[in-house]
Amino acid sequence: MKLSEAKAQFIQSWGLLGAQWGVNRTMAQIHALLLIAPEPLSAEEIMEGLDISRGNANMNVRELMNWGIVEKVLVPGERKEFFIAEKDIWRVGTAIARERKKRELDPILKVLLQLNKVEGDQKDKHVKAFRETMQNIQKFAHQTDAALNAFIKSEENWFYSTLLKVIK
Amino acid sequence: MKLSEAKAQFIQSWGLLGAQWGVNRTMAQIHALLLIAPEPLSAEEIMEGLDISRGNANMNVRELMNWGIVEKVLVPGERKEFFIAEKDIWRVGTAIARERKKRELDPILKVLLQLNKVEGDQKDKHVKAFRETMQNIQKFAHQTDAALNAFIKSEENWFYSTLLKVIK
DNA sequence: ACAATATTTCAATAACTTTTGAAAGTTCGA
DNA sequence: TCGAACTTTCAAAAGTTATTGAAATATTGT
Q1: What is the pTM of this model?
Q2: Fewer CB within 10 A of the terminal residue: chain B, N end or C end?
C-alpha cells in the first residue's frame, strides 16, 4: 500500500470513528491529518488536504484547540499560523475523557442528586421503583466518575499497566 | 419535588445523555420510561408517556431489544406485548460497551492492522511520522480493547471494586 | 375462515446539523 | 496610516437523521 492511499484511508476511518462519537466528521479528519503530518500545517494546507472551505477549517480547528488536542504554533519567518496535533494518543484519550465527562457525566450527577429528593410514600410502588432506579444509577455514576477521574489524572502509563495486571 | 415532575425530569436528562452518546434521543427516553416503571409497559403506554407516534415507538423499542437492554414480556390474559428494561445498571453499562465496541473499536483495529503495511523508506519523514502514529494508536487501541473486554465480561461487581482499590 | 386487534414498514416530511463563501475584522510591516 | 495578508464570522444552502401516520402485514380468539 502506498503512503498516499494509507493516509487517505486513515483520515477516512478516523473521521468515521469521530462521527460515531458525536465529534463532527470534519473535526476528526482535521485531527487525523495533523496526527500524521511530520510538520505543522497551515489553514491552507488543511483546506486543500481535506477539500473543505476556509470557514469550516477555521471553525473545527478552533474546536480542536478547545479540546486541548491541537495547538497553534508560529513558524519563524512566516506570517501564517500553523497547527500541530498532540501526538501522544494517551494524552489525546485523557483530553477527550475530560471533555466528555464535563459535558455529560457531571450534569447527570447533578440531576440525580436532585431527583433523590422526590417526595412520597415508600408503599407506593411507583415511588419505590423510581427511588431504587435513581439510587442504582447514582451508584454506578459515582463509580464511573471515580474511574474517569483516575484515568484523567494519570498522565503516565502506570495506571494502565496496573489496571491490565489486575483484570487479566 | 413531586413524583411526576421527577419522572419527567429524569426522562429528559436521560434523553439528553443518550443524544450525546450517539443513541437517539427517543430511544434513550423510552429506556428511561421503562427503567422507572414498576410494571411492564405496552406500546400504547410508551406512545402516550412520551407523546410519540406508533412507528417511532416500535422502531426504537426494537433497537433497545437489539442492544439487549429491553425485553418483550407477555402478560397473562393480555393480547398486547409489554416491555421491561434491564434494571441492573451495571448490566446496562456492559451491554452498551459491548455494542459500541463492536461498532466502533473493532473496525478501527482492523483498519490499523492494514495501515501498518504501508510501503516505504524509513528515512522519508512522512513515512516515518505515519508509521509512528499508526503504531501508537494501535497500542492504545489494543489496551482499550483489553480493558473493554474485561469490563464486558465482568457481570459481577468484583472487577469494579478491585479497580477502585487499585487506583485510589 | 373471519373479524378484531396488534405490530411493522416505509415514503413523505419535519427537525436538526454541517458546510460554504463572501464580507467583516484583525494584524503587521513599511 | 495604509494596504496586504491573514483570520473570523455568519446567513444561506446542502446534507443528514428522526418522526409521522397511513397502509400492509401478522396474530389471535371464536
Answers
A1: 0.81
A2: C
